[in-house]
Amino acid sequence: MSDGQDIQGLLEAVAAEARPLAAQGKVANYIPALAQVPPEKFGLAVHFADGRSFAVGDVDEPFSIQSISKVFNLAIALDWIGEDLWQRVGREPSGTSFNSLILLEQEQGIPRNPFINPGAIVVIDALLERYPFYNQQLRNLLRRLSGDPTVGYDATVWHSEEAHGDLNRAMAWLMKAKKNLHCPPDAALSAYHRGCSLALSCRSLAKAGRFLLGGTGEWPLSNDPTRRRRILAIMRLCGLYDAAGDFAYRVGLPAKSGVGGGILAVVPGRCTLCVWSPPLDAKGNSLAGVRALELLVQSQDLV
Ligand code: DON
């Protein structure tokens, strides 16, 4: 399908079918500031490699991207630190929830992958060790990739998570005890929580994800197809936590979700998709968001 009207019509039909599912989910409340977000919000945006974009719903309203930030952190870390990163974090699916401590103790403080919380904390720690103003650089990169100068951190969400981040604190201190955290744990946690509080709209996030398509001339991945392929592989295997298998079965695209209700998905070489609907399923993924992506893939018009 290449006709713009058809694509717009498809997005509208998918939104109408998926959106009501949100009523069966629950907005994340373990970070109290996230519980304030109106559950009926819904946005869906697609950005093609050739520059065309289409959108439906609340696509210009910034939301907390949470763990979707981990994709950008990983891309930057592989660019700035290189393959040495893999000494400190694995690249296997965990099969456990994103904030589980169980494997971390069993596996000597080496997190299974960069998309569960301890893995993301290690990636941030490695970046912070070398680049003390990393949060500023991350925000600037997202502004540039999205073309949206309003991209920024949501201080309310950041501080809310700092105040309620005891599980993350436990992971960080456990990794420090195992010598896999090099910065002071509070500094690594603060930078990690701040990164999760980045606020972008669906439209801006879909555009920011274009670097995963290649050919955009955008740093950090556009000129390195191997690295791009590797990041997409990790998204496929680990992007939806312990629901990655079910998501692969239903949707089959590399993707990354966040507990703010967003999902960034990639049709390799063709387009990026960003969907946002705050109510989550039991594994922490957007209920209506996953369904919207499933419907889009079933239509076979975007893949
Ligand atoms: O650390 C947390 O629990 C949240 N800032 C991020 C959670 C999320 O989106 C899923 N994590 N992988």
Written account of the structure:
There is one protein chain. By secondary structure, this protein is α+β, with helices and mostly antiparallel strands. Helices cover 44% and strands 11% of the residues. It has a five-stranded antiparallel beta sheet with strand order 2-1-8-7-6, sandwiched between helices. The termini are close together. The model has no long low-confidence stretch (mean pLDDT 95). Bound molecules: 6-diazenyl-5-OXO-L-norleucine. The site of 6-diazenyl-5-OXO-L-norleucine has 13 residues, from loops.
Number of helices: 12
Residue ranges: pLDDT <50 for 5 or more in a row? none
Question: Separation of termini?
Answer: 10 Å
Shape: globular
Summarize the structure.
The chain is an alpha+beta fold and 303 residues long. It has twelve helices and eight strands.
List keywords for this structure.
11% strand, 303 residues, 3-stranded antiparallel sheet, alpha+beta
Describe how the helices and strands are arranged:
Blueprint: H1 4-18, E1 43-48, E2 53-57, E3 63-64, H2 69-80, H3 102-106, H4 117-130, H5 134-146, E4 152-153, H6 155-163, H7 166-177, H8 185-196, E5 198-200, H9 202-208, H10 225-238, H11 244-250, E6 255-257, E7 262-267, E8 271-276, H12 287-299
Helix pairs in contact: 1-12, 2-4, 2-10, 4-7, 4-8, 5-9, 6-8, 7-8
The structure holds 6-diazenyl-5-OXO-L-norleucine (DON).
6-diazenyl-5-OXO-L-norleucine (DON) binds next to loops.
